[in-house]
Structures are given as C-alpha cells and as structure tokens.
Design brief:
Rossmann fold, single chain, 188 residues, alpha/beta
Length: 188
C-alpha cells in the first residue's frame, strides 16, 4: 500500500467509522452504468473508494484497479477482501488525499475509467477529469445540495456536468435521493 500524507483529521474520522462497521463490498450502480456505456481498455482509478465493492467487481472483470483513500483502515479491509477473492494482484491501494495525488498532472490521460462515489472535492474532480484517457469515462456521485446555505461536501444537481472540461460528452446525469450522479465521456 502506498502512503502520501493523508489529511490526519479526515483519516481519523473515517478510520473510526470503518473500524466500527462491517463492510458489504457491494459494487456501486455507477459501475454497471459505466460498463454498459462502453469502456476502452486500460486501468481504472477510484478516488475515495473506501472498502470498495466497485473496485472488486471491476477487478473480477479483469481490470487493474487503483483505489485511493485517506483511510488506511478501509484500504486494509479492501486489500484483505481482494486477496481472499484472488484479486490481490489487480487491486492497488494507495493511502493518499485524492487531489494531492493527482496534482501536477502525473496521472493525466491514463485511466479508462475514473470513478468516485459519495465524495465531493472540487480540486479532485478537476484533476480526475484530466486523468481520464481519451474516450474513457468519468463516473462521479456526490451528496446533493438542495437548499442554501452551501454545505461542505455537497453539490447542486447539475453542478458536476457544469464543471466538466470542454470536449466531454455527458452520457447521463441523475438526481437520486440524496445524491447527484454523472457519467461522462472524455473526448477521444
Ligand atoms: C462517504 S465515504 C464513500 C466511500 C465509497 N466511495 C462509497 O461510495 O461507499 C467517503 C470516503 O472518502 C474518503 N476521503 C475523504 N476525504 C478524502 C480525500 N481528501 N482524499 C481521498 N479520500 C478521501 C473517506 O476515507 C471515505 O472512504
């Protein structure tokens, strides 16, 4: 597991939650949407994945998946489950702040799918969009902001597509209770 200076307060808060609750390892529905839309070959990057059932499902389909999260507890649980399922070599866990890891463009244009669910961080979203390979997909879900005042970690429905760089095609944007979801394709 890599280690890149995760923000201590977030890490501690999330570590406590993950230590206290049993994982389900269910994949997120955005994974099925992304696969149905068509993915080019290549690896998958999941930001703020926690103990991601999505990563396990994609690895089971043969994808190399990198999961980034600030919680080392979540990543240890994910790693154990990946090994238990024989998927260890395809699931790379990186303990890091998502935006910091992508800063500087080191990951630009590399990933067939960049996925984030139940996560909002504006710099991470911008960096994630530039990390998508040509013709690849950005799949993102964040908690929805419905009323003023603005709340941290939330965004209005429509706010994800509004922040896409030029050239992306919006394949779908849904409002669910209580989230907003986006599936978009990078220019190919
Ligand atoms: C609501 S959970 C969502 C987890 C998972 N994506 C899901 O849908 O179940 C938010 C996740 O974001 C992680 N996180 C919070 N801030 C982060 C950051 N700056 N960089 C990377 N991960 C972060 C937390 O550790 C936690 O796993």
């Amino acid at each position: 597991m890599g280690d890149a200076e995760p923000a201590a307060a977030d890490r501690n808060r999330w570590n406590e939650r993950y230590a206290a609750r049993r994982p389900s390892f269910d994949p997120h529905p955005l994974v099925a949407s992304a696969v149905a839309a068509g993915l080019p070959g290549g690896p998958v990057l999941e930001l703020a994945g926690g103990r991601s059932g999505s990563a396990l499902a994609l690895a089971a389909e043969g994808r190399a998946v990198t999961v980034v999260d600030v919680s080392d507890v979540a990543l240890a649980q994910l790693r154990d489950e990946a090994v238990r399922r024989g998927l260890g070599p395809r699931v790379d866990c990186v303990c890091a702040d998502a935006a910091r890891l992508l800063a500087g463009g080191a990951h630009a244009g590399r990933w067939a799918l960049v996925l984030a669910t139940r996560f909002w961080d504006e710099p991470a979203f911008a960096a994630a969009a530039s990390a998508v390979a040509p013709g690849g997909l950005l799949a993102w879900e964040a908690l929805r902001q419905d009323e003023a005042p603005a709340r941290r970690y939330r965004i209005r429905h429509g706010g994800l597509s509004a922040r896409l760089p030029a050239g992306f095609t919006v394949l779908a944007e849904w409002a669910t209770d209580p989230t907003t979801r986006l599936l978009a394709r990078a220019p190919g």
